[in-house]
């Protein structure tokens, strides 16, 4: 795809917010082979690991709890 | 670097679909653990992982569109179809609860005293807070349309003001509904009246909160210059969803609050 340069809504307002979209476009279009979910930097990798940890551990925990719940409790 | 010879978006491999599925497993199992064994650990894990997946998946979509330029007109068309289909499925979801309401209220059983509202149930006055809530949501429909026009006309300041006002109206609705819930003389346990009232209005309230979150995300993106005057589908999707929430309320108001009182 040709890079489409975007015209933003208005010229940059000096008051508060500068338009940082071009910087982001440069960062995420860098030809480094990194997939989009990790391309933003270190924070991406950290968040990914936390999410993966929670999901993997959680799934294992569910399987454990299901096994426990399906075993009859031995009376006496 | 090879370039594609088509206008579709072939996404990078992503972990979010499978993690999303895992979080759904954790959340549903967590509900079962909560209901039957009074344990909230799994449920909390499920809801947390669901939140994490949603944030990262949608963050990636913003990156793919605004920063990488993958959302061609073809891709946008697909997204439009997708959002319309999703909203339609939500309409059917609410249809079920309206069916339940009419099933019970058109032929009230002897247990209810053969009348609707049932014997002993004092319904809310539809001309008080519910009417105000109707006005609030209708006004928010106007302000979100105003915001849209401001975006297409390139008027940044007005767009931000109009969208902010829309979100504030949404919060006002939610706050008023919360006080209504607290002050209501009947509860969810009060016969099928309570069930239909609180389940239907409760799911609606949840959708107001979801819609407000979607609009808030759009406000953030609007402030950060993500939208252009002819490409702002995220905002349009949020506006469609908000109008849908408004329409559902109008049906709720006319049927449950007004006819049902």
Give an overview in words.
The complex is a heterodimer of chains A (76) and B (261). Chain A has 76 residues and is mainly α. Chain A has a domain at 35-75. Helices cover 49% and strands 0% of the residues of chain A. Chain A contains 2 helices and no strands. The radius of gyration of chain A is 24 Å and the shape is rod-shaped. The mean pLDDT of chain A is 84. With 261 residues, chain B is mostly helical. Chain B folds into 2 domains: 1-70, Orthogonal Bundle (Helix Hairpins); 72-257, Up-down Bundle (Four Helix Bundle (Hemerythrin (Met), subunit A)), CATH 1.20.120. Helix content of chain B is 75%, strand content 0%. Chain B is built from 7 helices and no strands. Chain B has helices at residues 16-37, 41-67, 73-106, 129-152, 156-183, 191-223, 233-259. The longest helix of chain B has 34 residues, at 73-106. Chain B is globular and about 75 Å long. The model of chain B has no long low-confidence stretch (mean pLDDT 96). At the A-B interface, helix 1 and helix 2 of A face helix 1 and helix 2 of B. Chain B: One of its GO terms (cellular component) is mitochondrial inner membrane. Chain B: It is a multi-pass membrane protein. Chain B: It comes from Sagittarius serpentarius. Chain B: GO terms for molecular function: cytochrome-c oxidase activity. Chain B: This is Cytochrome c oxidase subunit 3. Chain A: Its main location: mitochondrion.
Structural class call of chain A reads mainly alpha
Mean pLDDT of chain B: 96
Residues in β-strands, percent of chain B: under 5%
The total tally of domains of chain B equals: 2
Structural class of chain B: mainly alpha
Count of distinct strands of chain A? 0
Termini Cα gap of chain B: 67 Å
Helix content of chain B: over 70%
Task: Give the radius of gyration of chain B.
Answer: 22 Å
Largest sheet of chain A: none
- Count of extended strands of chain B: 0
Model regions low in confidence, pLDDT < 50 over at least 5 residues of chain B: none
Q: Which fold does the CATH topology of the largest domain in chain B refer to?
A: Four Helix Bundle (Hemerythrin (Met), subunit A)
Query: Describe the biggest sheet of chain B?
Result: none
CATH superfamily of the largest domain in chain B: Cytochrome c oxidase, subunit III, four-helix bundle
Detail the poorly predicted runs of chain A: none
Q: Tally the helices of chain B: what do you get?
A: 7
Distance between the amino and carboxyl termini of chain A: 71 Å
The assembly state of the depicted protein chains is heterodimer
InterPro entries (chain B): Cyt_c/ubiquinol_Oxase_su3 (IPR024791), Cyt_c_oxase_su3_dom (IPR033945), Cyt_c_oxidase-like_su3 (IPR000298), Cyt_c_oxidase_su3-like_sf (IPR035973), Cyt_c_oxidase_su3_a-hlx (IPR013833)
Pfam families (chain B): COX3
Keywords (chain B): Membrane, Mitochondrion, Mitochondrion inner membrane, Translocase, Transmembrane, Transmembrane helix
Transmembrane segments (chain B): 16-35, 41-58, 79-102, 129-147, 159-177, 197-220, 240-260
